[in-house]
Design a protein that fits this description.
A hairpin with a 6-residue loop joins strand 1 and strand 2. About 20% of the residues are buried. The protein is α+β, with helices and mostly antiparallel strands and about 220 residues long. It is built from eight helices and three strands; from the N terminus they run αααααααβββα. The longest helix is centred in the last third of the chain and has 28 residues. The protein has two domains: about 130 residues, no CATH class; about 80 residues, no CATH class. It has a three-stranded antiparallel β-sheet with strand order 1-2-3. Helix 3 runs antiparallel to helix 4 and helix 4 crosses helix 7. It is elongated.
Length: about 220
């Protein structure tokens, strides 16, 4: 029995992959090889699915998106590319049903096609970069700063004694696939400290990128 399971959300992509003609599959592999790796999965998928020939962009996006999800599962389970292809194809055959018809012949074809796809450098590096980047319990989604003018009242609350500018930093993040928010109250000095920290981080980013260029290490962004 395979140690992995095929989620229902993957049925369409798996069937689309085994139904590709030989020339369509060759085009898919060529796209994976020609597309530069990146830490942004959506950017990689979008670039690989542009300028369609035999394949339509919707099918390419569907398949590549699922390939990246498969690779993420493989990295978490510490599978090599060939092992992952074998596990997934076995899981697909075990999932054979009216909803997901899948034959032994398709299993063999799926394993061959997955093994080759997982070996493509663009997909492999992008998948690994995603795994490294998001190997944490919380992942950043976005941030927003809300600015308010707040009044300071006297004790009876019928007279404004003064007013001050306040800021509220909202950070949205994912935890266990759930979107959550956390808020921080900031003043002008806090904003300045935050800006300086971000500027220092950008300088470090530039310095590390320059070091990578000198050492000929490919930069994934």
């Amino acid at each position: 029995m395979a140690s992995l399971q095929i989620p229902k959300s993957a049925y369409t992509a798996v069937q689309a992959l085994v139904r590709l003609t030989a020339s369509q599959y060759d085009e898919l592999i060529a796209r994976l090889e020609e597309t530069p790796p990146t830490v942004d999965a959506d950017k990689f998928i979008g670039s690989a699915s542009s300028r369609p020939k035999e394949l339509d962009s919707v099918t390419v996006k569907l398949i590549i998106s699922e390939l990246l999800a498969m690779m993420d599962s493989g990295y978490r389970a510490d599978f090599k590319a060939t092992e992952l292809a074998s596990e997934i194809s076995s899981a697909a055959l075990e999932a054979n049903s009216e909803e997901f018809p899948f034959t032994a012949e398709q299993k063999k074809l799926l394993e061959l096609r997955l093994s080759k796809a997982f070996g493509s450098q663009g997909l492999r590096i992008t998948g690994k970069a995603q795994s490294v980047l998001y190997d944490t319990d919380k992942t950043f989604v976005n941030a927003r700063i809300l600015t308010d003018l707040r009044a300071i009242y006297n004790e009876p609350g019928d007279e404004i004694l003064a007013a001050m500018v306040t800021h509220s930093l909202r950070i949205r993040y994912y935890e266990n696939n759930d979107a959550k928010d956390v808020y921080f109250s900031l003043d002008k000095d806090d904003l300045q400290a935050l800006m300086e920290a971000l500027q220092r981080a950008l300088k470090k980013q530039k310095g590390v990128e320059e070091l990578m260029q000198k050492s000929s290490i490919p930069h994934v962004s």
